[in-house]
Amino acid sequence: VNNLLPFLQSLDGMMESGSLHELSCIISDPGSPTQCVHCDTPFLPNVAPLYTFFIALQDVDDDMGHTTYLPKTHTKAAHDIFNAGIKQKEELIAITPPVASSLKKGDVAVFDSRVLHCGGANTSNGRRRVLFYFTFTAGDVEKNNPNPSRGTGSIRSVDRL
């Protein structure tokens, strides 16, 4: 946590009013295919970003499937291209240099949930990939919920729609 503190302090409002938005695990069993490139939340004007923290619960070897990120795709311009059509989406993916996470046990990857990314295929012989994750927003969970029709996902009744 101490290593993440300077980063958290650099995010406007996170230390004063940051709210937990999501808490779960990502599990990729052997034989799981590569995910399609996607964002977890869309770009919406006047909505504070959500920051997702992936924590490796074991060394993630190459054959277990790393998460691959397309840096700088959290922007309105990138989302406009990504959502314009198949050809534009494929061109954006092709010209954006990918970055694979290559996490070791205890490592943390932090990303803006609007960044385009995908989980790799698990081609291992019997090893499940497990990432613990949580997502925070700087501010009000309900106000900054990018998908209000789905509710906040909170277990707290005061956060549910």
| Helix-strand pattern | HHEEEHHEEEE
Outline the biggest β-sheet.
4 strands, antiparallel
Choose one word for the global shape: globular
The whole-angstrom Rg is 16 Å
* Nearest-integer average pLDDT: 86
Low-confidence stretches are 150-156
- For the record, give the distance between the C-alpha atoms at the N and C termini, rounded to a whole number: 31 Å
Strand % is 25-35%
Structural class: alpha+beta
Q: Report helical residue fraction.
A: 10-25%
Individual helix count: 4
The largest sheet has its strands arranged as: 1-7-2-5
Give the number of DSSP strands: 7
Which labels suit this protein?
161 residues, alpha+beta, 4-stranded antiparallel β-sheet, 3-stranded antiparallel β-sheet, 7 strands
Describe the fold and architecture.
The protein has helices at residues 5-10, 14-17, 76-82, 86-95, and strands at residues 18-28, 50-56, 67-70, 99-100, 108-112, 116-119, 129-138. The protein contains four helices and seven strands; from the N terminus they run ααβββααββββ. By secondary structure, the protein is an alpha+beta fold. 17% of the residues lie in helices and 27% in strands. The strands form two sheets. The chain has a four-stranded antiparallel beta sheet. Strands 4-3-6 form a three-stranded antiparallel beta sheet, with no helix packed on it. The model is unreliable at 150-156 (pLDDT under 50).
Topology, pairings included?
Blueprint: H1 5-10, H2 14-17, E1 18-28, E2 50-56, E3 67-70, H3 76-82, H4 86-95, E4 99-100, E5 108-112, E6 116-119, E7 129-138
Antiparallel strand pairs: 1-7, 2-5, 2-7, 3-4, 3-6
